[in-house]
Structure formats: structure tokens, C-alpha cells
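Workshop exercise sheet. Pairs work together: one partner reads the sequence aloud, the other fills in the structure field after running the prediction. Swap roles for the next sheet.
Pair: D.N. / O.F.
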Amino acid sequence: MLEKYFKSASEKFAVPFINICIKLGIKPNVLSFLGLLIVIIGCYLFLNDTKTIGALTIFIGSAIDGLDGPLARTTNMISRKGALLDSFIDRVGELFIWSVVAIRFTSTDFELFVLLSIVTGSNLVPYLRARGELLGIDNKVGVAARPERVIFAVIYMLFELPFYSIYIFTFILWLTVYQRFNILYKNLK
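Structure field:
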């Protein structure tokens, strides 16, 4: 959903950073790995009670990872290998983020179960989009795409929101999974 409304603005905002990457000779895949490394460092910091710096580091790492696509398009370095690597790294980074939430913010088996359902749904959303792309179906519906999931997780961790917000988010996430599945299922013959 954020991508729909803010993609052009965010790509304009990214131009100076893209230009710096070009001047430094940084490749899109390097940005993907760098973003993941920074997200992992942020998760580690958060787990070691450096909450604000950890959350900020996770956000910065996710933002850096978000620059790989615009850099690839700007430098005409788009490739299927790069797209695969980017998607893979996105999943790994998000798993680290939700692992921190599971470790730090669950106190019952049911809460852990809910967090694991978020991890599951967070992997199904891009899977269903990718399946749609393979079938020539645009499948970007729903309000729980990756940017929204990462932003929610970081805000949740930083401000230690009440756990019922996780329940609400889980519902929204699984609604997105349902919407994407439904679009694919209806378009298959």
C-alpha cells in the first residue's frame, strides 16, 4: 500500500543516495547485503537492550536494502539473479526482525504462535506476488506488504505497543494473504 502512494516520492528522495552509490561504484547486490548486515546488527543491538539505536539501525538497514532496486534500474543492472537475491535477502532480514519481536515480546505459547503466524504470512505475501508475476498477473493488493510489515515491527519494538496491536496486525497481514491468494485463484483457468 505504501508503495502505491509513495513510490515516486521515495524514488525521488533516493536519487542523491543512488548518485553517491554510483560515484562510489557500489553495485545493487552490495546494497542488498549491506542492508541485511545492518538489519542484523540492529536486531542484535535491540536484543542487547540498546532499544532506540537498534530500532533505528533496523530501519536504516531496511531503507538501504530498499535502494538496490532503484540503483539497479538507474544503472541498467537489472537481472533475474539480482531480483532473486533481493527477494531472498528481504525474507532473511524480515525473519531476523520478527525473531527479535518473538524473543522480546512474547510471554505465552499463544503469543509465540501468533508471531510465527506473522512469519508465515510474511513469507506468503511475496510468494503470492511472485507467483502472480510468473503467471502475468499483477498481484500487489493488500495493506501488509514488506514496507508496512517492517515499519510496524520497528514501531512495535521501539514503543513497546500493547500485544493486542500484534493481533490486529496479524489479522491485516492474513487479510492481505487472502486477497492475494484470491486474485490468483480467480485468474487461474
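Discussion prompt: The first helix runs from residue 2 to 24. What would you look at next?
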